Amino acid sequence: MSLESEIKSLAVEAGFCSVGIAQSDLVKNAHKVMSKASSIVSVAYSYPAYRDIDPPILRGKVARFARGRDYHLEVGDRLEILGRRVAELCGASWGLFVDTSPISDRSAAQLAGVGGFGKNTCIITSESGSWVVLGGIVTDLPLVPDNPADSPCGDCSICLEACPTGALIRPFHLDRSRCISNLTQTRGVVPEHLRPMIGRYVYGCDICQEVCPKNNLLPPPTDSDYFEYPFSAYPDLTWLVRITEDEFLKFVRPTAAGWIGRNTIRRNAAIALGNSGSRLALDALNDALKDADEILREHIEWAINRITGS
Fold this sequence. Notes:
Layout: H1 3-13, E1 18-23, H2 30-33, E2 39-46, E3 61-62, H3 71-90, E4 94-97, H4 105-111, E5 116-117, E6 123-124, E7 132-139, H5 158-162, E8 168-170, E9 173-174, H6 180-185, E10 201-203, H7 207-210, H8 225-228, H9 237-240, H10 245-252, H11 262-276, H12 282-288, H13 294-308
Parallel strand pairs: 3-10
Antiparallel strand pairs: 1-2, 2-7, 4-7, 5-6, 8-9
Helix pairs in contact: 11-13, 12-13
């Protein structure tokens, strides 16, 4: 078995669904992770993609990648295992990257053949579609690279048509300032004309992936924790808009959504409550005003006015 095949087998043993190799010279900023970089081992880690239920009116929605333990930690732990095992195998030096490094995870994945770019700018793998998160290791090993992956989209453009905000301005080009996922992850004021299009998403957005023919959705799980854990797939918006610091640290901080902070997740909950149109949200919104900063207050007042028609 070649060294490349052995490393790929180790990646699969570490829990990754897809793995490929690229030359570090082709991956921008690889040398910022390791000065003597020679190769990139890019990996994809799949997460459960359940078919959504229609949640009750005062429940929000969390994108599938952020349901459960923070994937940065999950993938990082698995990459640590992979890196150590590669070092044991051949004495290589290595460094890892998951989302927050100077390396573009998606570009590395495409160059390494892990998956091709979809017209929605997501990486689409043959194993799990785009229901994956990405990462990899940079190593000083001179490995034989894989061929880059082509886009699997063909003539399909369903995702462009499905985006509520028109953020997919043309194939393979995303206007991040209009992307619902980006809007929920960016601190500050959400442009008022975009707030109604966010619907009840409080973190991320899956719309362009849900419509993709390359993706499959599983039946909803029967595990009650999936629905009842405070910050899960469909969090209680009346709780979330009033979440305390202690509750945030316990229930939200350990997830991929935790980094945006308490007030930003409350802001998102306020927008979602406004979009619910339910007068049952008014008590929670008025209560949340008591400790709201200026930005949060603006969004709460917008939600109240949207519900009452003021």
